[in-house]
Design a protein that fits this description.
Distance between the termini: 38 Å
Number of domains: 2
Strand order of the largest sheet: 5-8-9-10-11
Structural class: alpha+beta
Strand content: 15-25%
Shape: elongated
Helix content: 10-25%
Radius of gyration: 20 Å
Length: 243
């Protein structure tokens, strides 16, 4: 909490391999709309990563949504970014990032500044020192700025997905439903506004897909999508710059 009693939630983005800190933005909320602009600016400046590893909290995940997805995570999928979540309650699975957070807390938040603008000035100074003035033992004494290479994947708004092998494409309503004729099938609000593909895979049983991921099934009786096996289980950690 800041001196003016306003909450400050630092949103940090770092490269896994070089530990280069791409962003440290003080936000007044963990809501997705605040995070979108921070990630979009980072993607424009540094390119798109192959994967993003996060914890299971907002705005990265949503415990009540299908497969724990959030609107932010759905946007990452649209951009071709793999989602990697650590095991709940195991921050050591993202140890490098947690270690950076400890240093950030010690050097840039104690005591907290009076307002967000003043706190952001301290975050900006921390980024400069962390990337270019602080040698890292784990990097053999090098600076993150000496090792980091931006991604070659240029950011651009993703095109609308197409489903040539499905029976039809449907845009999910703002309340997270798929409208098929007069039927309204509950999917998830995190897909609101997204286009999904529907394909009949058995008699009166339809598969719902998003991009290359099979989300689940519905039939003529139930008014909701029953989840398929989770298609977002990560295989390994990738970096935000080439090895």
């Amino acid at each position: 909490m800041l001196g003016n009693k306003q909450y400050c939630y630092p949103l940090t983005i770092a490269d896994y391999r070089s530990r280069y800190l791409l962003a440290c933005e003080g936000l007044s909320s963990t809501r997705s709309e605040f995070a979108f602009s921070v990630f979009e600016r980072a993607f424009k400046d540094f390119g798109l990563p192959g994967a993003i590893r996060t914890d299971n909290g907002a705005p990265f995940a949503s415990g009540n949504a299908l497969f724990g997805l959030s609107k932010l995570a759905v946007w990452w999928l649209r951009l071709g970014i793999q989602i990697q979540r650590i095991k709940p309650g195991c921050p050591q699975h993202n140890g490098r990032h947690e270690r950076m957070h400890l240093t950030l807390k010690q050097e840039a938040t104690k005591p907290a500044s009076f307002n967000l603008l003043q706190q952001q000035e301290r975050f900006d100074k921390f980024i400069a020192v962390y990337n270019h003035e602080r040698p890292h033992q784990a990097l053999g004494g090098s600076y993150p700025g000496d090792l980091y290479t931006p991604s070659v994947r240029v950011y651009a708004p993703p095109p609308e997905p197409e489903y040539p092998y499905h029976d039809k494409s449907v845009r999910v309503t703002h309340c997270g439903r798929i409208c098929v004729g007069r039927r309204k099938i509950n999917l998830s609000r995190v897909f609101a506004g997204q286009i999904v593909g529907i394909r009949e895979v058995d008699d009166q049983i339809w598969l719902v897909s998003f991009l290359d991921f099979d989300l689940g099934f519905f039939d003529r009786e139930e008014g909701r999508v029953e989840p398929a096996p989770n298609p977002f289980v990560p295989e390994k950690v990738l970096t935000m710059s080439p090895e």
